[in-house]
Specification:
- The complex is a heterodimer.
- Helix content of chain A is 27%, strand content 27%.
- Chain A is α+β, with helices and mostly antiparallel strands.
- In chain A, the strands form four sheets. In chain A, strands 3, 4, 10, 11, 12, 13, 19 and 20 form an eight-stranded mixed β-sheet that branches. In chain A, strands 7-8-6-15-16-17-14-18 form an eight-stranded mixed β-sheet.
- In chain A, β1 and β2 form a beta hairpin.
- The termini of chain A are far apart.
- Chain B is α+β, with helices and mostly antiparallel strands.
- Chain B has one domain: Folate-binding fold (2-Layer Sandwich), CATH 3.30.2270.
- The N and C termini of chain B lie far apart (32 Å).
- The chains are: A alpha+beta, B alpha+beta.
- At the A-B interface, α6 and α9 of A face β3 and α1 of B.
- Chain A: Its cofactor is FMN; FAD.
């Protein structure tokens, strides 16, 4: 960088870029939010620091770079509320703890109801949230208009807004900065963050994994944790572990940078769009997956059109905004729309996957319980219900439809 | 937008179709023989390859018939599932 004719020194790096060692106590596959948070809590809570986080691309360049940054914990079921609210409580601590600005903003989330049945379901969810210690309120259209004046709460809509749940503690955070804040702390504690290092398979000895094959050679591992999101199946297939995952494109989009107009997060299941305004000023929109399986990190235009139609109907002023970018990530969806976090048939291999469309909000919570699972070999009480054995026992955590948003 | 070749109607936009997931998932010949793990596997586990996947589509806004194609899930390149259709005849 040239300033005033002088060459200034390069800025300080947030983390080293070390060469991989030949062996680590713990290898984590995937340096997205979940992988980084897992390494962070392994070091912070369990004193494990001989860790490599291996990333096939660049740090936090997968779904961590592509999500809509929404954080909330207003899930219906007990196991979900406990897990996601634990994550939200960690989000509330992290700005101070990580000492790196990531614009965590508890601007609140409105989950709109457009039909009588949806209103009944939403109120049931709000009552369940209260019983689980998760803050929740039911708002009438007039109260909604006070929270979010740009939302059309008039009866003229095809699907009028007849009420909404409101979680005040919910909000957004700047996703890239979250990853960088975690990466910086991991690095400080001695964790090796290794980019451009794709894991292509495993070294096994009986029912144990002893290392990983990577694009940068074989790396030995005492324990291995997968935090590879949409590509988890590609890895577990090499071990003959069949996980109930389907990888789908999930799209999101952003407008140009605008003055602050949108004070909170708004989610609508029925017309199916969710919206917020980024700290920098873009309107950020997203909704559901493309229905077909796919690893191409691109989706179809009609999905974008449907979301924009819903958004413009709900927010008439969005009609003047320009769509600047659309993009897609690859999300791994389970049959019950809840993640799989736990041990595998290989004694020292653990999976954190199946987060589908909702992984970002859980970043610190997932890291916390996955670190516990890796460090102790057994699940934390919060992720005990989330093992893959639930697809044999039938004890599903069925958040499809029960959650505040369709998947 | 995928361009999907319906075997009866020809090339049509993806919006005319609905997705049916993995093809050729046979109902167990004797369900009572299955233990919980096998039954869970049948109910919940489907192929999720990065590469060729034989899958079902239905032409809802056209002839309303189901058919199979082979699609590369990494590139979206689609080819007709001709060998498999012949086998099943």
């Amino acid at each position: 960088m040239v300033v005033d004719g002088h060459t200034s020194p390069a800025p300080d790096r947030l983390w080293r870029n070390p060469e991989p060692k030949s062996n680590y106590d713990v290898v984590i596959v995937g340096a997205g939010g979940h992988g980084l948070a897992t390494a962070y809590y392994l070091a912070r809570n369990h004193g494990v620091t001989d860790i490599a986080v291996l990333e096939r691309g660049w740090l936090a360049g997968g779904n961590m770079a592509r999500n809509t940054t929404i954080i909330r914990s207003n899930y219906l079921l007990d196991a979900s509320a406990a897990l996601y609210d634990h994550a939200l409580r960690l989000w509330e601590e992290l700005p101070e703890e990580l000492d790196h600005e990531f614009h965590f903003s508890q601007c609140g989330v409105l989950n709109l109801a457009h039909t009588e049945q949806e209103a009944r379901d939403a109120r049931r969810r709000a009552f369940a949230n209260e019983l689980n210690g998760v803050d929740a309120e039911w708002l009438t259209p007039d109260e909604i208009a006070e929270v979010c004046p740009i939302l059309d709460t008039s009866p003229r809509l095809r699907y009028p807004v007849i009420g909404a749940t409101y979680q005040r503690r919910a909000g957004v955070a700047k996703h890239d900065h979250v990853a960088w804040a975690l990466a910086r702390k991991c690095d400080e504690m001695g964790v090796d963050l290794i980019q451009n290092c794709e894991v292509t398979g495993f070294v096994t000895a009986g029912d144990r994994v002893t290392g990983v094959h990577t694009s940068r050679g074989t790396i030995g591992a005492g324990r291995v944790g997968l935090a590879a999101a949409g590509r988890t199946s590609v890895l577990t297939d090499t071990l003959g572990i069949s996980l109930p995952l389907q990888s789908h494109p999930l799209q999101a989009m952003a407008s140009e940078i605008l003055e602050p107009v949108h004070p909170c997060v708004v989610m609508s299941n029925h017309v199916h769009v969710y919206t917020s305004q980024a700290h920098k000023g873009e309107l950020v929109l997203g909704a559901g997956i493309d229905t077909h399986n796919g690893y191409a990190q691109r989706g179809s235009v009609h999905v974008v059109e449907n979301q924009l139609a819903a958004a413009v109907e709900l927010f008439p002023i969005f009609g003047r905004a320009h769509l600047l970018r659309t993009w897609a990530g690859t999300v791994d969806v389970t049959p019950d729309a809840s993640p799989i976090i736990g041990p595998t048939p290989y004694g020292n291999l653990f999976v954190n996957c199946g987060w589908g469309t909702g992984g970002f909000k859980a970043t610190p919570g997932a890291g916390w319980v996955f670190a516990h699972t890796i460090a102790t070999g057994a699940p934390h009480p919060l992720n005990e219900p989330y093992g893959m054995e639930r697809f044999t026992s039938g004890a599903l955590i069925d958040e499809h439809g029960a959650a505040a948003v369709a998947h | 937008m995928l361009l999907i070749r319906c075997p009866w109607c020809g090339d049509r936009d993806e919006v005319e179709f609905r997705y049916g997931g993995q093809a050729d998932v046979a109902y167990p010949t004797d369900p009572h023989e299955l233990d919980d793990a096998e039954w869970g596997n049948f109910l919940f586990v489907r192929a999720n390859p990065m590469g060729a996947l034989t899958e079902r589509w239905v032409h809802t806004a056209g002839c309303r018939r189901w058919f199979s194609v082979v699609r590369d899930t990494a590139t979206n390149e689609m080819t007709p599932d001709i060998p498999r259709r012949r086998e099943s005849r």
